[in-house]
Automatic annotation (TrEMBL):
It is found in: Endomembrane system; Golgi apparatus membrane; Membrane. The lineage of its organism: Eukaryota, Viridiplantae, Streptophyta, Embryophyta, Tracheophyta. PANTHER family: METHYLTRANSFERASE PMT14-RELATED (PTHR10108:SF1104), SAM-DEPENDENT METHYLTRANSFERASE (PTHR10108). InterPro entries: Put_SAM_MeTrfase (IPR004159), SAM-dependent_MTases_sf (IPR029063). This is Methyltransferase. GO terms for molecular function: methyltransferase activity. It comes from Populus trichocarpa (Western balsam poplar). Keywords: Glycoprotein, Golgi apparatus, Membrane, Methyltransferase, Signal-anchor, Transferase, Transmembrane, Transmembrane helix. Coiled coil: none annotated. It is an enzyme of class 2 (transferase). Belongs to the methyltransferase superfamily.
Length: 612
């Protein structure tokens, strides 16, 4: 009975169930037709979201300068970690050359002025603020002679170096008359005298090193003669000298000849100078002069102006005895001869020496030859009082290491290190292909940012320079490029110098040897793929923000997965970002991320963007 009753009940309800199902089907059919007609919003939203995920469709970035005061609107739920501004006391923060840390190290051999980076727990995780009133530097060439006081608000050099014409304060700007300690009448006249001995005008001399550069007026005035000088000076009581140099638009780094090698390859510079740099050349068995010899190209020139040259005139001013100064000069000349240098000129305050083109022409052999097999392996390596051996030659007329073309021809000529197979994996053919590739990349960059190649970007950094193809494709009197070769990458810096470009070794797990806000444009090709398992990517990005000027630009070129990590961190750094496909299309896994740093200054809430 029970089973029969249940069966009858099921038959009674079955038509009703079927009717309900039919009604529901009709309802959803009518609803779908209504949305399809255009009155529904679901499809429109879906289409809009699909468009927003296209990596090519973003609001255009504005690369012009603004300095607008815009209220910062804090998001209620930030999607990324938001980095707060550092205290204004860190406005000129240089992580590896901070004064308090420096004073805990020995003063012997200037060790305390060398790089001493903070430990992991001491690193800042905030954004370095610009000083109040900061504005875009004057465009080159006006920027060579004028700097906004608000950008580098330090007047001490205007007093200390007043009679030497280093810098003058006028209204709200600093003026740089082009003077120096040993050329108070101007760098032009000084360089003219050098050019009477050194072939500066014909392209034979392209790269130069200024040891103890002051505000780098020598390098600034060499630029119009198509000579690119790398200048360095310590962060010491001569307040902000390197900062002034970079603010003027001149290549410079914080550095010192101390106990470790200079961060440059062997045979890099066509010319080097010490203009009253006060480096004790005769001390430590001539170790400092031997380091200059390492980085000086065969056939290159070294200029010494200042003590002890012209000691007969200045011994009382220098408060030293005649015998002491005479002995010092004699010792320097003996060292120079042992290094296979020849004195070519001495008149007034200037002496000029020339390094022989090879060892076959040396009058006397150096007894102490360096044992290191790699003269370019110098990062944090201690200097020794020994002579770096030159590559062997077959005849007395041959240039050790290979002869270079005159600039600008040498920019795209096959560098000797490549021609001789000294860079593993690089051939003449691959070098030429690299040049073609970077010309293509630069053209793509310029299509998206018309200001690239103009004076808007004067100081440019390539964080992973490779063979220097990026800098070569950009070469112009309007800008210069600091070519950085990471210490964990293939060592190509010697090739870069052979092309007539300048650069430096660096480990991006540490702070760079420069002041904040010293670069207009930073190029990061493959940097984050290189370092993603070596150190914290956040630290590298914060360092990039420190050295990038307000409203400066960064172009990242890397694998898409890596750039997504970078973009997420950048979202909390007051950077406006835009992701783009590779110029060969969306199927290429390498992408491009373009960044513009917002304008803001310490102690205020102003910014060029409210999208925080």
């Amino acid at each position: 009975m029970g089973n029969k009753h249940n069966s009858a009940g099921f038959k009674t309800r079955s038509p009703l169930s079927i009717f309900i199902v039919i009604c529901l089907c009709c309802f959803f059919y009518i609803l779908g037709a209504w949305q399809k007609s255009g009155f529904g919003k679901g499809d429109g939203i879906a289409v809009q979201m699909s468009k927003q995920t296209d990596c090519q469709i973003f609001p255009d970035l504005n690369f012009e300068t603004h300095h607008n005061d815009v209220e910062i609107i804090e998001p209620s739920k930030p999607k990324a970690k938001v980095f707060k501004p550092c205290d204004v006391k860190y406005t000129d923060y240089t992580p590896c050359q901070e004064q308090d840390r420096a004073m805990t190290f020995p003063r012997e051999n200037m060790i305390y002025r060398e790089r001493h980076c903070p430990r992991e727990e001491e690193k800042l995780h905030c954004l370095i603020p610009a000083p109040k009133g900061y504005t875009t530097p004057f465009p080159w060439p006006k920027g060579r002679d004028y700097v906004h006081y608000a950008n580098v608000p330090h007047k001490s050099l205007t007093v200390e170096k007043a009679v030497q014409n280093w810098v003058q304060f006028q209204g709200d700007v600093f003026k740089f008359p082009g003077g120096g300690t040993m050329f108070p009448q101007g760098a032009d006249a000084y360089i003219d005298e050098l050019a009477s001995v050194i072939p500066i005008a014909d392209g034979s001399v392209r790269t130069a090193l200024d040891t103890g550069c002051g505000v780098a007026s020598w390098g600034a005035y060499l630029m119009k003669r198509n000579v690119l000088a790398m200048s360095f000076a310590p962060r010491d009581n001569h307040e902000a000298q390197v900062q002034f140099a970079l603010e003027r638009g001149v290549p410079a780094v914080i550095g010192v000849l101390g106990s470790i090698h200079l961060p440059y390859p062997s045979r890099a510079f066509d010319m080097a100078q010490c203009s009253r740099c006060l480096i004790p050349w005769a001390a430590n068995d001539g170790m400092y002069l031997m380091e200059v010899d390492r980085v000086l190209r065969p056939g290159g020139y070294w200029i010494l102006s200042g003590p002890p040259i012209n000691w007969k005139t200045y011994y009382q001013t220098w408060k030293r005895s005649k015998a002491d100064l005479q002995a010092e000069q004699r010792r320097i000349e003996e060292l120079a001869e042992s290094l296979c240098w020849e004195k070519k000129y001495e008149k007034g305050d200037i002496a000029i020496f020339r390094k022989k083109a090879n060892n076959k022409n040396c009058r006397r052999k150096s007894a102490n030859i360096c044992e290191s097999k790699d003269a370019d392996d110098v990062w944090y390596k201690e200097m020794e009082a020994c002579k770096t051996p030159l590559p062997e030659v077959n005849s007395a007329n041959e240039v050790a290491g290979g002869e270079l073309k005159k600039f600008p021809e040498r920019l795209f000529a096959i560098p000797p290190r490549v021609a001789k197979g000294l860079v593993k994996g690089v051939t003449a053919e691959s070098f030429q292909e690299d040049n073609k590739l970077w010309k293509k990349h630069i053209n793509a960059y310029k299509r998206n940012n018309k200001l690239i190649g103009t004076t808007r970007y004067r100081n440019i950094m390539d964080m992973n320079a490779g063979l220097g193809g990026f800098a070569a494709a950009l070469e112009s009197p309007k800008s210069w490029v600091m070519n950085v070769v990471p210490t964990i990458a293939k060592n190509t810096l010697g090739v870069i110098y052979e092309r007539g470009l300048v650069g430096i070794y660096h480990d991006w797990c540490e702070g760079f040897s420069t002041y904040p806000r010293t670069y207009d444009f930073i190029h990061a090709n493959g940097v984050f793929s290189l370092y993603q398992n070596k150190c914290n990517l956040e630290d590298i990005l914060l360092e990039m923000d420190r050295i990038l000027r307000p409203e400066g630009t960064v172009i990242f070129r890397d694998e898409v997965d890596v750039l997504n990590k970078v973009k997420k961190i950048a979202g909390g750094m007051r950077w406006d970002t835009k992701m783009m496909d590779h110029e060969d299309g969306p199927l290429v896994p390498e992408k491009i991320l373009v960044v513009v740093k917002q304008y803001w200054v310490g102690g205020t809430g102003n910014s060029t963007s409210s999208d925080q």
